[in-house]
Amino acid sequence: MIVAFSVSPTPGDETGGVSEAVARAVKVVRESGLPNSTNAMFTNIEGTWDECMDVVKRAVAAAGEGSARVGLVLKADIRPGYDSGQLDAKVERVEQHLTGAE
């Protein structure tokens, strides 16, 4: 399974920024040992249902330290039989179509 998620505590810093809190969440993800990637909007992780949900739960808690409220956006790709390697493989399949190298 691949999970894409984004956490945002309320309120942010004096400028509305949440990068410090998001960094705490990303640290949890990176220390989890699960395959992962982070971009400007989401963090993606790959693992079993229980592994992914545990990491998301801990990341939300880390981002929410000192905050009364945390927003969570989560999207999951649940595809039985595809347990690993899909975080990169999905992108590679798209790139193959773009370059015509099928």
Tell me about this structure.
With 102 residues, this protein is an alpha+beta fold. The protein has a single domain (2-99), classed as Alpha-Beta Plaits (2-Layer Sandwich). The protein is 42% helix and 25% strand. It has 3 helices and 4 strands, in the order E-H-E-E-H-E-H. Strands 2-3-1-4 form a 4-stranded antiparallel sheet, with helices on one face. It is globular. It starts with a strand and ends with a helix. The model has no long low-confidence stretch (mean pLDDT 92). Residues 3-95 form the Thiamine-binding protein domain. InterPro entries: MTH1187/YkoF-like (IPR029756), Thiamine_BP (IPR002767), UPF0045_domain (IPR051614).
Whole-number count of domains: 1
Into which percent range does the helicity of residues fall? 40-55%
Record field, number of beta strands: 4
State the CATH architecture: 2-Layer Sandwich
Question: What are the low-pLDDT stretches, counting only 5+ consecutive residues below 50?
Answer: none
Distance between the termini: 25 Å
Q: Average pLDDT across residues?
A: 92
Beta fraction = 15-25%
What does the radius of gyration come to? 15 Å
Q: At the first level of CATH, what is the class?
A: Alpha Beta
Could you please say which CATH topology applies here? Alpha-Beta Plaits
Shape: globular
Oligomer: single chain
Q: What's the total helix number? A: 3
Give helix and strand order, one letter per element, not per position.
Answer: EHEEHEH
- Strands of the largest sheet, in order across it? 2-3-1-4
Which structural class do you get from the secondary structure elements?
Answer: alpha+beta
Largest β sheet strand count, sense and barrel closure: 4 strands, antiparallel
